[in-house]
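Sequence in, structure out.
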Amino acid sequence: MSASHTITLYTDATHRTQVIALWQTVFGYESAHNRPDLAIDKKFAVADDLFFVAMAGNTVVGTIMAGYDGHRGWIYSVAVAPTHRRQGIGSQLVTHAERALTERGCMKINLQVMPENEKVAAFYTALGYAVEPRISMGKKIPGNIPAR
């Protein structure tokens, strides 16, 4: 890892405002269920210590969330500030999350890429991920999604 970047566990009081701003910049979420503040609240409530930020000094320059259900691990919300890309931060975040999942006994890690962001597939391929023949399906639970 570069001496100018560190990866640390997300803390709400310290990182929240910057993470929300970063996700708005990188992801530009439109759906209510993907609102950054809601996603952070839901993840933070789980308290599984699988939410990490990359820091350059006091500035959040990257994020990654991971999840583990005892069977598979998942990687979510990998974001690097546009001003800090091509410095290995994304790879370091993924490696950090993989290590945390592996320490929990995880045997397989999954992730999903939005169709409009297929160019990131090369990034994940370089890190050892492969496209698998699956149909990804989802179901929103409207009663748990607050109005915008």
